[in-house]
Amino acid sequence: MSRTILAILAIVLGLGVTEPAWAASSDGDIPTAAQSDRVTSPDSWRAIRQGEAGYIGGQPATRGVLIQSEGETWRNVRNGKLAVYAGWLLIGVTLAITAFYFIRGKIMMEGGPSGQTILRFTKIERIGHWLTAGSFLVLGATGLNLLFGRWIIEPIIGKTLFSWLSWAGKWLHNISGFVFMAGLVVIFYLWARDNLWDRYDWGWIKGGGGLLKKGVHPPAAKFNFGQKTQFWMVIVVGALVSSTGLNLLFPFTLADLHAMQVMHLIHAALAVVMILFILGHIYIGTIGMEGASTAVTTGYVDREWAREHHAVWVEEVEKGEPKAAE
């Protein structure tokens, strides 16, 4: 009976052993020396270590791999260069934004608020913005926990609480990914046309966007060059992050294990790039510029703010027709 059970286990586990040494021994329990040598053959274990696939009935050959050597390479890159470079970039950009705030200061409306408002974004535009932005905040927080949490958070809160936090974060990450993709579709439909290059963009670039010197306000339409860069970064990089995330969420659907390891590294690296861009966006939209935040909360902005930062757009709205570039 024991020989039968062991033979079945060998088949289920895909060990590829047709006659185990212990099953062929004379007393049924203790293998002979010659039989032991055959089971522990260096060539056999070397093949397993190098990723040679065994046999599992009714399963793809790749699932018979007991040791996937590339996994060690993936782990070393993920926990090594990727984590180290990403960490330093996040720290560096955060420090650069902080230094910019103390050097340049908050960008104020020069004449002060006018007290009159103009509709900047409609309700559907605000919904599209927050579908994308809100889900990205969740994705960013949970993703950074997966990348750095074991080194930063776990020593503080302990292994048990950290395991529960990461488990919940994984589910939030997966669900928020679909919300983020829906947001990408909405904002692309609403804003893609307004984010195409126009003749005002070069003037905005030459003037540094009005960020470096006080009193400099390059004319811009509904979106200036900086906002357009941010928009297309979110659309293009967001689409790449979403596609790689879907392949990881539904493994072996469109890619094998090796491809998924590469996709994971691409997914994490591009997500960090998005976070670096979004940090600047959040800064400008909150503490960095007076009067900017109401555009995505109430939908209205002060007319003085609009004239200083989007003069061409204000004229278009007031006249009800586009203004030709000068």
UniProtKB/TrEMBL annotation:
This protein's UniProt keywords: Cell membrane, Electron transport, Heme, Iron, Membrane, Metal-binding, Signal, Transmembrane, Transmembrane helix, Transport
UniProt topology in membrane: Multi-pass membrane protein
GO molecular function: electron transfer activity; formate dehydrogenase (NAD+) activity; formate dehydrogenase (quinone) activity; metal ion binding
SUPFAM superfamilies reported for this sequence: Transmembrane di-heme cytochromes
Compartments in which it is found: Cell membrane
Alphabetical GO biological process terms: anaerobic respiration; formate oxidation; respiratory electron transport chain
One cellular component (GO) term of this entry: plasma membrane
Every Cytochrome b561 bacterial/Ni-hydrogenase domain range: 120-290
Signal peptide feature range: 1-23
TM region(s), chain numbering: 82-103, 130-153, 173-192, 231-250, 262-284
Cofactor(s) listed in the protein's UniProt record: heme
PANTHER family: FORMATE DEHYDROGENASE GAMMA SUBUNIT (PTHR30074:SF6), FORMATE DEHYDROGENASE, NITRATE-INDUCIBLE, CYTOCHROME B556 FDN SUBUNIT (PTHR30074)
NCBIfam families the UniProt entry points to: formate-DH-gamm
Family designation: Belongs to the formate dehydrogenase gamma subunit family.
Annotated protein name in UniProt: Formate dehydrogenase-O gamma subunit
